[in-house]
Amino acid sequence: xxxxxxxxxxxxxxxxxxxxxxxxxxxxxxxxxxxxxxxxxxxxxxxxxxxxxxxxxxxxxxxxxxxxxxxxxxxxxxxxxxxxxxxxxxxxxxxxxxxxxxxxxxxxxxxxxxxxxxxxxxxxxxxxxxxxxxxxxxxxxxxxxxxxxxxxxxxxxxxxxxxxxxxxxxxxxxxxxxxxxxxxxxxxxxxxxxxxxxxxxxxxxxxxxxxxxxxx
Length: 216
Hints:
Elements: E1 6-15, E2 19-28, E3 33-42, H1 45-58, E4 66-71, H2 78-86, E5 90-94, H3 96-105, H4 113-127, H5 140-171, H6 177-213
Parallel strand pairs: 1-4, 4-5
Antiparallel strand pairs: 1-2, 2-3
Helix pairs in contact: 5-6
């Protein structure tokens, strides 16, 4: 009789602002799936270290790499993804919509952090994530442009909100003039910040293009 060997090891991670839930699953060469543990950890440096130690203790076959799967949930996944990548682990960051569709296909009705982590681990096993499914950190320049673009979007949204508020103030009966002045100053502030961000994006893009044209 052939001994069962581990074919896949996947850790599904349901991540949030303050904490994350992890589920460690393995699949053997007979396609049997075993849950080796589920546990919650703080989304902090110390919490990540405890999580990593927890995973290493459950890894009885180091020759079979672990794939850590998580959703691209805002920015809350980033520190853990970088932490795992720095420890030379395989990381797969999936779009939330893709995970949502998979949950629907599993007819998953109960939704808790623990249940979601189990489902994400199952997603990783069924999809057998490799190659382009794996995450690598963006370049420094790309990350800066992304951060600036996010700030640009936030400022535009704030400016739009302030303009709507100004319209309401102008429509209201006998609004105090100082309030109108303050709201106009707020809109002007957003406009100035938007211009600064746009200039910085253009400067950075031009610098990247120049570096690409004249490499060292």
